[in-house]
Amino acid sequence: MMRMKIILLLISFQCGLIGGFNYAIKIVEVDSGYTSDLVVEENNIVSLEVCNGKVYYAVVKDWRNPTIHRIVEVDPIGGDKRVVVEDYSVSSLKCIDGKLYGLMHRQEIGIASHYKLWVISDKPECISCDLLDRNIYMIGGGYRGGVVVVYPDSGSSKLAIIYKDRVEDLVSGKVYVHQACSNNNLIYYVLSTPTQPYELYRYSGGGVEKITSFNEWVVRETKLYEPIKESVVVENEEIDGWIMLPGEGDKPYPLILYIHGGPKGMYGYMFHPEMQLMVSEGFAVAYANPRGSDGYSEEFVDIRGRYGVDDYKQLIIFLDHVVSKYSIDRDRLGVTGISYGGYLTNVMITKTNRFKAAVSENGIGDWIADYWASDIGYWFDPDQIGGTPHNNLKEYIEKSPVYHVDNVETPVLFIHSMEDYRCFIDQSLAMHVSLVMKNKESRIVIFSKGSHGHSVYAEPRHRKKRYEIKLEWFREKLGKKP
Q1: Which residue from 427, 420, 415, 416 is spatially nearest to 452, judged by alpha carbons?
Q2: Which residues are bridge partners to 47 per DSSP?
Q3: Following DSSP, what letter does each residue of 219-258 receive, concatenated?
Q4: C-alpha distance from residue 209 to each of 143, 179, 213, 252 (Å)
Q5: CA-based Rg of the chain, rounded to a whole angstrom?
């Protein structure tokens, strides 16, 4: 009797660092525990799937440009390999009813191009290209002759089925679907709303059923705030935004402008505990999706060479709109963001003095240093900033806030984590040292642990401390007392 085997993707890596690591697909014999190499690659294997008795994986072609992949087919018995397709950017692979699907693009607008749904063969066929101008987050599986996907749209994240001739939204509206998994009869998905934390749901032909109630205590025991949608038009481009108001306390309210990361991130109808915290403490909170954000057309996403220009202008116009429409104290405005949001926070304080407090987290201050030090700088920056510091130094300096700190009057707090290899600690240090040497008000808090995503993935005590630090800073600078 043939022993059962399972295939595991084993990646040997050190989080966030680059180098000559080996990446392997191993066969594990369940009965004996014996392992053997099926594939060993010099570069990162980004996705793995088994389909029709063959193993398929997407692998980086050249580490110098790790966004270009090839898809390889392997016979798990004989080990024979062949390249099925190459020169695509691949997000994931999924076998559905004997067909191999993938989320891929051909860098139509560089690395920020939308992932589309493809049927993968020697001649790949794009299923969604003419049906949906949105970035597809994930493939959930099959459902009644279609392919279940999750995609962002104007602040929402939708659960949908893609057929050959149409897209059918199953779950949409003022909701955010985070993940989904399906077979031909049922779909399970994780969903949140601005006032409902994450829970698991089940979709079938008979409707939607809520499966879990893990976070119902949050709804019962705290007051949660609904966002009000506010859009502005900037040079014929509509920018979606939202504002949350305390609803009680002294008016006019101080306001904090939040800026998302990415730049291909997206704000909207998800549960955001930090924003809820700030509103509960008496701060109005505003946030928007400027050019470069996800959830819109591929053309809208393209902000190459315009960092800190188009997005800055659109956010300022959005801010002007909500400040003029609602009871907001113009003399008590704050701004904050993490990652790309930290970068734009740094840009904001070098271009305007209207903010009385800023918190910049794990952001970029110096694109030149980022090119050398970041785990993605050597390929991300040439695509998004343009060229390299060697051949486009003027642009790298122009887009780097650290070289414009003479303009800063806003008191700023920098928060960074030591284990962040995406935006290295030297970024916040460069901004902080430059400011204090010019007698500007700057503080820096460094967490000894935590990756680039420490605000979300760190231990609870770490995240709690971060909340306390931010809240204390905004209270101090915007006039809210404990």
Answers
A1: 420
A2: 58
A3: HHHS-----EEEEEEETTEEEEEEEE--SSSSSSEEEEEE
A4: 17, 16, 12, 42
A5: 24
What's the rounded Cα separation, in Å, for the pair 385 and 404? 17
Total-model pTM: 0.95
Show the CA angle centred on residue 380, arms to residues 376 and 386, nearest 5°.
145
Strand partners, 443: 413
Residue indicated by tokens 């559905």 = 96
pLDDT tens-digit series, residues 48-102: 999 999 999 999 999 999 999 999 999 998 889 999 999 999 999 999 999 999 9
Length in residues, the chain: 482
pLDDT at residue 34, rounded to an integer:
84
Q: 322 Cβ partners below 8 Å, 6+ apart? A: 230, 241, 243, 255, 286, 328
SS3 assignment, position 162: strand
User: Tens digit of pLDDT for each residue in 20-46?
Assistant: 456 888 888 877 888 888 998 989 899
Quick check: helix, strand or coil at residue 402? helix
> How far apart are the C-alpha atoms of 95 and 80, rounded to whole Å?
20
